[in-house]
Design brief:
about 15% strand; about 190 residues; alpha/beta; single chain; 5 helices
Length: about 190
């Protein structure tokens, strides 16, 4: 699979993902552009190769649990094609690849088996290795932690959203046929909310 003694690859793809679109944040402070900038620094720092601009892939505003509509799937298919358009993939961490452990592990295994060297920033410049049962188990733990984090957040957010909706407040973005109107409330202690 991945042999760290082999010469570093020349063509590098980048993958970035963020669950929400962050519409109210200026472009340079969005997480996806930041992840791409970090990938550029990572590739340069570790002399991995040259980033192939058309293979900078971003899934902005898409859940890590969704493996049906993500650009990540096109990236995996491209890695399995001949000729392959890139030799390496750089991403921030396992949780950027996905937050559903079985599909995340399968996507990473597909990439590695296709001959793509996968680098995660969090691994400090070392390629992801899936050449032993222990390496696969460690990836499994990391993918499990990513999925559990998503489940924990959902469990905390869901009741708060229900309470907000129960009060007639907006719980998401604009809804067709309705206009979101800011409401100011003065609390009993005099604070304005």
């Amino acid at each position: 699979m991945n042999d760290p003694t082999v010469a570093r690859p020349a063509r590098v793809a980048v993958y970035a993902r963020k669950s929400n679109e962050q519409r109210d944040v200026i472009e340079r402070e969005k997480s996806v552009p930041w992840q791409i900038d970090e990938a550029r620094r990572f590739v340069a720092q570790h002399q991995i190769g040259t980033i192939v601009e058309e293979w900078i892939i971003a899934d902005d505003g898409i859940s890590g649990a969704d493996f049906t509509t993500r650009q990540l799937l096109a990236l995996v298919r491209a890695a399995q094609s001949t000729p392959r358009p890139f030799d390496a993939l750089v991403a921030l961490d396992v949780d950027r690849i996905g937050r559903e452990q079985i599909r995340t592990n399968a996507a990473l295994l597909d990439l590695v088996e296709a001959g793509v060297t996968v680098y995660l920033h969090s691994d400090g410049g070392q390629p992801l290795r899936l050449d032993s049962p222990l390496a696969k188990m460690m990836l499994g733990f990391r993918s499990y932690a990513a999925e559990q984090y998503r489940a924990d957040i959902a469990a905390k957010v869901r009741p708060k959203m229900r309470a907000k909706a129960g009060k007639g407040h907006v719980t998401g973005s604009r809804c067709y046929g309705y206009e979101n109107v800011p409401v100011t409330v003065t609390l009993p202690d005099g604070k304005v909310q």
